[in-house]
Design brief:
The protein is α+β, with helices and mostly antiparallel strands and 341 residues long. It is 14% helix and 30% strand. The protein has five helices and 18 strands. Strands 1, 2, 3, 4, 5, 6, 12, 15, 16, 17 and 18 form an eleven-stranded mixed beta sheet that branches. It is globular.
């Protein structure tokens, strides 16, 4: 009886294979039909910056769009942070922080307020293929660094049709735009980020408890992230005040990656004469990866400007992020207080 069943199964399988081979299109592609259903088909396309499937597969082939958004108290609440794939936060002059906000598979109908570039922006962006960088001016020395890095940019100070000023807000916190407007204004080409930019794993890690992390950049930028299981992510606060956006939602991150970085003397000053800092994002340093209410401690490494930043645990294995959005905190070694969690 078993022999007969095996024989029938073999004949059925042969028939399925023959039907699949004969039923393809003119290019020999069976579209994942019978064979795809039998053996699982191709793996789904995922976005390299989030590990999630895109709404439109074509979005995964787009270049990264990076937008500089300010974070002074006068600039809040902002727009467009919730839609970003990745956000970098770094200290600017006077202890305030500023964001480099990366959109790849995602889109946002409103982004801003957009402000000026900083020296750390080019080395951040050079690991993301051929990005389009959007800002609202900067000192000549910083503009020159962006140009030398070969990064296409849109300066919103000279592109009011692309980045209109909102009369409901006072200058210089009044420049807003959308991803559609920016992509239309930039070159249509541009390489997307590499598929291995980050490593993702849905399985929860075995790290230490990491339900909260405090990053005291300065007296005017004291940031806390708190994990909420019902939100499956970390909510952002400035001290005890929720960091809310213009639509009333609170800033949330699936992953919070804290890179401990050295402050660099750029010999650059802003228009008011304040020194403009930068931070070392090449080489290596300590890293803390917060996800799923856990923290994995390790080391960040980056060999060259065009190399991706790798996060390694104590055993030298790459630390996987949870599929979703990520905030990367460039936390300086000379901060008023060390990272607290």
């Amino acid at each position: 009886m078993r022999s007969t069943q095996r024989g029938l199964l073999g004949l059925m399988l042969a028939g399925v294979l023959l039907a699949a081979a004969c039923g393809g299109d003119a290019d020999g592609d069976d579209g994942g039909g019978l064979l795809g259903g039998l053996f699982g088909g191709d793996d789904p396309i995922t976005c390299p910056l989030t590990g999630l499937e895109p709404d439109d597969e074509a979005n995964a082939e787009r270049r990264v769009l990076a937008v500089k958004i300010e974070n002074s108290p006068e600039a809040r609440p902002q727009s467009g942070l919730a839609e970003a794939d990745v956000v970098y936060e770094q200290e600017a002059e006077g202890g305030i922080t500023r964001f480099n906000v990366l959109y790849h598979c995602s889109d946002a109908e409103r982004i801003g307020p957009i402000r000026s570039a900083r020296p750390v922006d080019p080395p951040i962006l050079q690991q993301y293929g051929d990005p389009l960088f959007v800002h609202a001016g900067s000192v000549d020395a910083v503009i020159k660094r962006v140009e030398e890095a070969g990064i296409e940019m849109i300066n919103c100070n000279f592109e009011e049709a692309v980045c209109p000023r909102d009369p409901a807000f006072s200058a210089p916190h009044d420049i807003f735009t959308s991803t559609d407007s920016l992509r239309d204004a930039g070159r249509s080409g541009g390489d997307p980020p590499a598929d291995d930019t980050f490593t993702f794993d849905e399985e929860e890690p075995q790290g230490k408890r990491g339900r909260q992390v405090r990053l005291n950049f300065s007296p005017v930028a004291d940031v806390t992230w708190r994990f909420r299981a019902n939100r499956d992510g970390y909510l952002r606060f400035h001290e005890e005040e929720a960091h809310d956006l213009q639509d009333g939602s609170q800033v949330t991150a699936t992953n919070v990656v804290v890179m401990i970085v050295e402050r660099l003397d750029t010999r650059v000053s802003d228009s008011a004469g304040n020194p403009v800092p930068s931070f070392e994002v090449l080489g290596e340093g300590d890293v803390y990866v917060f996800r799923n209410g856990r923290v994995i401690e390790g080391t960040w490494e980056r060999e060259a400007l065009t190399s991706r930043t790798v996060f390694l645990d104590a055993q030298g294995e790459e630390i996987a992020l949870a599929p979703g959005n990520t905030w990367v905190e460039l936390f300086p070694t000379d901060a008023p207080e060390p990272i607290e969690f």
